Amino acid sequence: MTRDEFLQALRRELSPLSPEERDAAVNYYEEFLADAEDEGVAIEKLGSPQLIAQRILQENGVAVPVQTPERAPAAKTPYYKSVWFWLCVVLTLPVTLPVALGLAAAAVAIVAGLGITALALIVAFYAAMAALTVAGVFLCVWSFPCLHLSIPLFVMLLGFGVCMVGLGVLTGLGTVSACVGLSRCIRNARKKKREARAAKAALKKGGDPA
Amino acid sequence: MSLPVSAPLLEACVLAILEREDTYGYLITQRLVAATGVSESALYPVLRRLQKEGALETYDVAISGRNRRYYHLSPMGRALLRQYLEEWESYKSGLDEILRGDTAETNTEGGAGDDPR
User: Fold this and answer.
1) A19-32: per-residue pLDDT in tens?
2) Does B48 contact A55 at a Cβ distance shorter than 8 Å?
3) Is A43 exposed, middle or buried (0-12, 13-18, 19+ CB in 10 A)?
4) Does some domain include residue B60?
5) What is the complex's ipTM, to 2 decimals?
6) What is the per-residue pLDDT for B112?
7) What per-residue confidence (pLDDT) applies to B103?
8) CA angle A18-B59-B56, nearest 5°?
9) Residue B27: inside a domain, yes or no?
């Protein structure tokens, strides 16, 4: 291991520390190696940067996972890059594939069912609104011929008519605002999802160089 | 070495070395390694801890185009060393009694004035 490799590995292992602490340790060892009579021998005597870093991390109260230096790089490779993961995927395919297909079909059916129900409800409410309003108007108009029969009858019919028109208008307003709210809800959920995905991507991009 | 040196003892050794003269990390390490058999990387955490506690001060000296950091004992470090030396005397005489069975060697003087060598 050369001097630069040693110092670089040390800096990497000390990444959980604050920049100040990390620089202090790396500077110390940089100077240490410069003071040594034989740099190569000194690096060999110091041992692995991982172990040196572990001591410093413990001293700074950072929890250090117990791992041998040989195993450290293996733990860092993500699971989807390992041969074993893909072997498992392929071997369990006969079982996982039908289960996955079944679950997907069920999910589609539920979503479709909910969609159709919502649509039907919306249509029903609009129909109710139309019926109430039309019936109300009819009652109002029909109450006038009753005027010469009896005034109480006329007032009752007119009242009913106005009530029905009012109910119809309220139903319509309620349905419209419910529709608007629902669509806004869906749009917000989609937007949040997109933002979360973007944030995740940015995090991944930012985390890589460190 | 079959007798490991504890962290406080290592601290005491560093303070004692620096009481005599200001010096730098590599030299302190070599002296500690020769005397106690600790690993070459054992010194840094001790130095850093003592520095944070205020027992040590540092200054840089330019040498062949770079800086070398020297460590200097602060008054607080001096007090800490005195405390350690007292503890060391009682520790040592207690162990000697058991190991050698000799109680004749008294350590009545004890304390800061003593050279721990």
Assistant:
1) 999 999 999 999 99
2) no
3) buried
4) yes
5) 0.80
6) 47
7) 60
8) 70
9) yes
